[in-house]
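Q: I have 104 residues here and want to know how they pack in 3D. Can you give me a structure?
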Amino acid sequence: MIKHIVMWNVRGDSVAEKAQAIDRLKRSFDSLRGCIPGLLHLEIGVDTSAVEYACDVVLYSEFESQAALEAYAVHPEHLRVKQELLDLRIARHQVDYESPAGRA
């Protein structure tokens, strides 16, 4: 299993603007559920710590294999979401790693 984790900081000059951006991001990624072969789990988390070095949002996803993750990267629905959200982010961080099957 491959775990794919992406963290973003989003644009917004106010708490309300950031909240709107986060909601848009969540809706876009939620639209991928059931559309991507090999995508086993998708979860969006919003930071509650409010520490200055925290990211605003995290995407946690699990894929059945490296090949499934690579197919996701070029899947038309994923590319649509990336395009929809292009103007929302001000920073992006990513980690992909292999993990034994099954979540603990």
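Q: Anything worth noting?
A: Residues 15-30 form the longest helix (16 residues). Residues 2-98 form a domain with the Alpha-Beta Plaits fold (CATH 3.30.70.100).
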